[in-house]
Structure formats: structure tokens, C-alpha cells
Amino acid sequence: MIKALSSAPDRVEKQRNERGQWVAGVSGNHSGRPRKKAVLPKSLTDHLADAMMQKIPVIDGEGKQQMMPAFEAAARQLVGSIPSLKPKDLITALRYMDGLHVFDEMRTRAGECPTGRTLEQARERIRAKMAQIRETQAAAK
């Protein structure tokens, strides 16, 4: 014999057998077992961001070792290699930096480039270099 039990009128009736056990297919837990939350693996972007934030040892110009975030060390390495770049590679690097709004950030921080040149002077120099490269490429064809 099955009897119906109800603790509150607004709840669904729960069915139990004579011993008070739940009938097959009926549960006493209205919301059921909570689902396991999916633990998503970190994306490559997250791993790279974590790695770039870690401090690494770097030797400064005076030969002293100092700790700095990896992204800062990478930026310093890039900027330090600019004088040795070929003009085409220099233009590519500067375009990427411009796309990242590096020059705009420099302008807001200091008003001019650290070398003493204004941003407009640097752009004019780049334009002249690009025109020179185009002329040499046109002459080679």
C-alpha cells in the first residue's frame, strides 16, 4: 500500500511505502543532486599572462641583478634592439607599437618621446625612411 505524505500544501506530494521508504522513481530531494561545476582549463592566454607577470632576474646596465616582470624585460629587450634593426623590421616594429597605442601612452605620460624627439618628429623620420625604402624597391624592379 502506498500512502501520500505532504508537509506543506504547496509542495509536490512525496510518495513512500508502508515502511516510510521512497517508492522507486520518486526522490525526496526536490532539487536533486547538485551538478558538478565544470572546471575549465586555463586558456593559453591566461597561462601567458601569468608567465609574463612573474618576476625574473635581469642584469641592468651597471651589472647589477634586479627582479622585474617578464613583460617589462621583454619590452626593454625590444626597445634595446631597435638601433640594430633593418629599416623594414624597424617600420614593422613601430607599426605594431603604434597599433598597441604605445606612442599615445608615451604622449600622455611625458608629452614627448624619451629620446627628446616629439612624436611628430619621430613619425616624420619614419615617413622619410619609408619613402626611401619605397624608392630603393622601385629602382630595384
What report would you give on this structure?
- Strand 3 and strand 4 (65-69) form a beta hairpin.
- The protein has a two-stranded antiparallel ribbon. A two-stranded antiparallel sheet has the order 3-4.
- It has a domain at 85-141.
- By secondary structure, the protein is mainly α.
- 1% of the residues are buried.
- It has helices at residues 44-53, 70-81, 87-99, 102-110, 119-140, and strands at 3-5, 14-16, 55-59, 65-69.
Q: How many E-type strands?
A: 4
Q: Averaging pLDDT over every residue, what do you get?
A: 77
Strand content: 5-15%
N-to-C span: 98 Å
In DSSP terms (H or I, runs of 4 or more residues), the helix count works out at 5
Weakly predicted, low-confidence segments: 8-13
Order of helices and strands: EEHEEHHHH
Shape descriptor = elongated
For the biggest β-sheet, the strand order reads 1-2
Give me the oligomer status. single chain
What kind of sheet is the major sheet?
A: 2 strands, antiparallel
The Rg value, from CA coordinates, equals 34 Å
Helical content class: 40-55%
Class from secondary-structure proportions: mainly alpha
Question: Brief description of this entry?
Answer:
This protein is mainly alpha-helical and 141 residues long. 47% of the residues lie in helices and 11% in strands. The protein has a two-stranded antiparallel ribbon with strand order 1-2. The protein has a two-stranded antiparallel sheet with strand order 3-4.
